[in-house]
Amino acid sequence: MVDASVIIWGPLLLIAGLFAIFGILWAIGYPLLFLWSALFSENNLDKRILKLKQREAATLSGLKRDPLSTLRGEYRAEAAESGLVYASIVFGPSHWHLMIGWLGNLVGGRIDILHKVVATARAEAQQRLREQALADGWEEVLNVRLDTAEMTPASRQKGIRAVEVFAYGTGVRYG
């Protein structure tokens, strides 16, 4: 026969033990992850930018010119087919980037690290738009636009945690 106190206290002790283990891991893990972010986040962002530039160079190497356009130059009037082309990315800074941005906000001025994060997101969205347009068979994408939206979790009342960059334009196939 099982003792009634084991039935009552057993699950509670198990849950309390799990919370204690989680608390210990959080107390040790979060500072270690923050330190990891401080040491390697800038390097990881630079690697991402380098890979993005390599993808862009590979995409543009087989083309005469960049297929993305804002209609500021010459364009051809004999389009055979057109349609919407779009791509998007959600990109967020690391905790280290956010802390550097917060410190920079205290003294004022330009916050270069956050500018670099948003510029990387925009470049990634444009490259994804190029790749999508070529995959869909469009020769050119006219009237390209970039929309940037700030994203904050519902649990936080203020403070940006990520940006979404939405790139779109009109894909054109010529006759």
Would you kindly provide a written description of the structure presented here, covering whatever features stand out?
By secondary structure, this protein is an alpha+beta fold. The chain has a single domain, classed as Translation Initiation Factor IF3. It has helices spanning 4-61, 95-107, 112-135, and strands at residues 79-91, 140-151, 162-174. Strands 1-3-2 form a three-stranded antiparallel beta sheet. The longest helix has 58 residues, at 4-61. The model has no long low-confidence stretch (mean pLDDT 86).
The CATH architecture assignment turns out to be 2-Layer Sandwich
Q: With helices defined by DSSP (H or I, 4 residues minimum), what is the helix count?
A: 3
Query: Fraction of residues in helices?
Result: 40-55%
Ranges where pLDDT stays below 50 over 5 or more residues in a row are none
CATH class: Alpha Beta
N- to C-terminal distance: 86 Å
CATH superfamily: Hypothetical protein apc22750. Chain B
Proportion of β residues?
A: 15-25%
Short descriptors:
about 180 residues; alpha+beta; Translation Initiation Factor IF3; three-stranded antiparallel sheet; 3 helices; about 55% helix
Write the layout of secondary structure elements.
Layout: H1 4-61, E1 79-91, H2 95-107, H3 112-135, E2 140-151, E3 162-174
Antiparallel strand pairs: 1-3, 2-3
Helix pairs in contact: 1-3
Short précis:
With 175 residues, this protein is of the alpha+beta class. The chain has helices at 4-61, 95-107, 112-135, and strands at 79-91, 140-151, 162-174. The protein has three helices and three strands; from the N terminus they run H-E-H-H-E-E.
